[in-house]
Amino acid sequence: MQTAVRDVLVVVKSGDAQAGALAEEIAAWVAEKGARARVVENRTDQEGCSDASCFIGREPAPGLAVVLGGDGTMISVARKMGEAQAPLLGINLGRLGFLTQIAGEDWRRPLEMALVKGFAVSRLTMLTAEVAREGRRVFKSPAVNDVVVRGSMARLIKVGVVFGGERLGGFRADGMVAATPTGATAYSMSAGGPLVHPELQVLTLTPICPFLCDFRPMVLPTDRPLDLGVEEATAEVVLTCDGQATFDLRQGDWVRVRRAPYCLNLVAVGRHSYFGKLLDKGFIRER
Fold it and tell me: Of the chain's two ends, which shows fewer C-beta atoms within 10 Å, N or C?
């Protein structure tokens, strides 16, 4: 259980007037409660905001970061705040709201509880992806949801898969998705991957439209390395992390997927359990 919070960072989706107005309201309310509050805009990696320094500079990590937006904003902030290990509380202003914990109009009570009594934190697995090219590291990124290697223009590629130093083989497909349990409800599930409880320290590996190969989605422990190699490519191949960081791959490149040395820290608030969210968002339906 975290102690009572005295320093709150409010992160707002860039260019969103509704979110900006709510951020100022929350900051004023937090100040009335005797805690320090700062409001910052979230910018993209492409705009030069790729780590916690674009939010807090050289200051210590806040006791709580309140994120206003949808799951995309939440993932963006989590990617940048991962190493800082600040607990995140998401207020949903988007559509699905699977990662965000509370609705836009219901923020006062859970935030007051956090300020006065503290809160529990769910520590969820994150990944890192590195690209090795001719013996050099040419790219590195964290991943909250997934690491995806795929071809462009609906062209097949051949992806070599090595897990824990053991080669599983080379597989022709549109691509491969390595996902965290958090990301199991995102692109991975659309590709046919399984749902995975977020408290497990595992990743899933799911092929995207495999061609003439028998490769089923796999659930793998994260205490061993996963390497994905571009063994054959007849068109462009792209690595994406959470759909937010991208890197152009070449034949012969290897993507090194590892469990990150830090976690996604989510404030445990709200009425819904993991299974309650699956039911509420339509991932599980009783017929």
Answer: C
